[in-house]
Amino acid sequence: MTHVLAADPTLADFGKDPLWITIIKAVLLFVFLMLGILFGVWFERKLISRMQNRYGPNRAGKFGLLQSVADGLKMGLKEDLFPRTVDRVLYLLAPVIMVIPAFLAFSIVPFAGMVNLFGVQTPLQLVDLPVAVLFMLAMGAVSVYGVVLAGWSSRSPYALLGGLRSAAQVVSYEIAMGLSFVAIFLFAGTLSTSEIVKAQGETWFVFLLIPSFLIYVICMFGEAARIPFDLPEGEGELVGGFQTEYSSSLKFALIMMGEYLHTFTASGIAVTLFLGGWRAPIPISWWEGANQGYWPVLWFLIKFVLTFSFIIWVRASLPRVRYDQLMSLGWKVLIPVNLAWILLVAGVRSVMLNEESRMIALGVTGVVVIGALAIWMRFDTVNQRRKEAQKAQVEAEFEELSEEPTAGGFPVPPLDLPHYHGVQHKEIPSGTN
Predict the structure, then answer these.
(1) Can you state the angle between helices 132-153 and 250-273, rounded to 10 degrees?
(2) Where is the composition biased (Basic and acidic residues) (predicted)?
(3) Which of 134, 264, 389, 425 is deepest in the core (most CB within 10 A)?
């Protein structure tokens, strides 16, 4: 008589697989990510081109499916150049540091529950930890070292400036991203990804914790440096950011692979923590076998592709923001809103778990909400006064310039420029160049 395990794995189900099963799962994850990069690049180029009324890749292979393969082969076979002044060791090591943590971060994403893999009952997830979400954040932080080292080892001011700006951006948005997970930890009672998916058996966290989800979505673009937050690679400002001195060779391909893997990880974490993970959506979940066997892989991939399509849609729709706007949004908006939301969720959770402290929790929650509103009104008033003062200063400067055409010792044209439209020009005789 065979023992049938439950569809929902727990932490106790991990670490019991034979070594060959672990190797097979690692190879399957690697193949999934590599194929995902190839088809993800093609899918992004194709989707954006249709949004812009273009065809996109349509020459290499059927529907241009082999275009990404051709680009990868081209970059892999190109001559590997080294600028004269680079630190060769760190220059080669930086792209590797960007790629490896991105692969490791995806190892905690569950694709399904318990499945039968070559006769062995095992969770369709490479590894799970009691602090799995913190492991993902740590891997994102380690990849920043690759960005900084890529800029510093290039010995170029453009690359160094791009690396520093990228590090400041990622660190700023990692704080807000980590705070957006706190509400999930309070509801799920764990940091394990498999347990968090199990906690969403009745209601997905995207419906219970909408502010946390919206904050995470914004931080997702900032963490992966995607438009509208791709400031480290602003061509008009930084020539290419930290990758300025990397030619179109295998090193450049590794950098692009690392950025795409970070986008995939952000999409996978969004599905796992907020969108129910591998669980089927309603009304498919009403079918008894929807969350058993290999069917959950299909639901996970559908959610994953839709999340990735949303990232592409934002890229095709929004312009790049200024760097000061990017940092102000992270430090002045997302982090304070996150802290207030965490206190509110903690108060509500305390009421749900302990009836004796209901009045105290409600009182603290009320004070937090009133305080947050007061702070927001105060900041709004200060910003309004600052805008009015700046407007008055600009108007005063314009009046001063109109009264003194040579203000500051430099000739300043008058504001009534239409009077100069009738200037007569000398006629050029015919036959002259």
Answers:
(1) 160
(2) 424-433
(3) 264
For residue 122, list its beta bridge partners.
115
Bridge partners of 116?
121
Query: Residue 201 has what DSSP assignment?
Result: S
Q: What are phi and psi of 121, to 5 degrees?
A: -80, 120
The list of the chain residues with pLDDT below 50 reads 1-6, 407, 417-428, 432-433
Whether pTM > 0.85 for this model: the answer is no
> 311 burial class (0-12, 13-18, 19+ CB within 10 angstroms)?
buried
CA distance 335 to 338: 5
Confidence (pLDDT) at 306 = 94
Is the Cβ–Cβ distance between 236 and 16 less than 8 Å?
A: no
**Domain segments of the chain: what residues?**
11-321, 339-395
Query: What does the pLDDT read at residue 428?
Result: 47
Amino acid identity for residue 122 in this structure: T
Integer angstrom CA distances of residue 200 from 59, 184, 214, 217, 317: 44, 10, 18, 19, 32
